[in-house]
Amino acid sequence: MKDAFGAPQSLLVLGGTSEIALATARRCLAGRTRTVWLAGRPSPALDQAAARLREDAVSLAPPGAEVAVRTVAFDALATETHEEVLGKVFAEGDIDMVLLAFGVLGDQTRDEHDPAAAVRIAQTNYTGAVSAGLVCAQALRVQGHGSLVALSSVAAERPRRANFLYGSSKAGLDAFAQGLGDALHGSGVHVMVVRPGFVRTRMTEGMEPAPFATTAEAVAEAIEGGMRRRAHTVWAPSVLRPVMSALRHLPRGLFRRLPS
């Protein structure tokens, strides 16, 4: 089987400029992955991400290995295009792993007073993910094998006052991905939900790091380990699992008093 033991030969990244996704792609290239698709809005950033990944592949992949890094125009908000765009990728050959990594953090203070901006967060993080996730799930089901990895967040467990727009959108994605995994049980397709904590990336630049802050590379390592175990849920770092379990059951009055 091409993606045996969580070591895919081909990878499709939805959100091709995501630092976590690119760190994951590099780990995959050091293993068995020889084809990477970076899907995102056409931009210099997407082209640069592909170029850097090609350069990295030279040192990461075994000598003589032929590696292809390709880009595809994909817009999470343009859900009417998802079947056509993603269908063309799968038509090029089997995809062993789909990494659903797009999303926006937004600005809670500003966006809760701007319904249109709030809706854009929800449409990107949830609606776009539902559309792309279902399209990819069906293609993987037809293949009879493959994995779909969805980047959720610890914020999905219990959104705080300071991030309830982002947290609620990730909660929707999280629930969707868990249900999708149940729907695909027995089909040969594996779904894994990843719940990172605060990750030091461009998206969080300038923000005060939360406790147990981590890096894109550490999350990528957790994703790789989870794939090998065929895990359904991965916390990054793992200590966040008991921490969030405690916070989830904290009385609301106490939860409100936690530092934002």
Provide an overview of this structure.
- A seven-stranded parallel sheet has the order 3-2-1-4-5-6-9, sandwiched between helices. Strands 7-8 form a two-stranded parallel sheet.
- The mean pLDDT is 92.
- With 260 residues, it is of the alpha/beta class.
- Helix 1 links the parallel strand 1 and strand 2.
- The protein starts with 9 loop residues before the first strand and ends with a helix.
- The chain contains nine helices and nine strands.
What's the gist of this structure?
The protein is 46% helix and 17% strand. The protein has 9 helices and 9 strands.
Indicate the radius of gyration in whole angstroms: 18 Å
Question: Per DSSP, what share of the residues sits in E-state strands of 2 or more residues?
Answer: 15-25%
Choose one word for the global shape: globular
Unreliable stretches: none
H/E series: EHEHEHEHHEHEEEHEHH
pLDDT averaged residue by residue: 92
How do the strands of the widest beta sheet line up side by side? Answer: 3-2-1-4-5-6-9
The first-to-last residue Cα distance is 46 Å
Q: Count every helix, treating DSSP H or I runs of 4 or more residues as helices.
A: 9
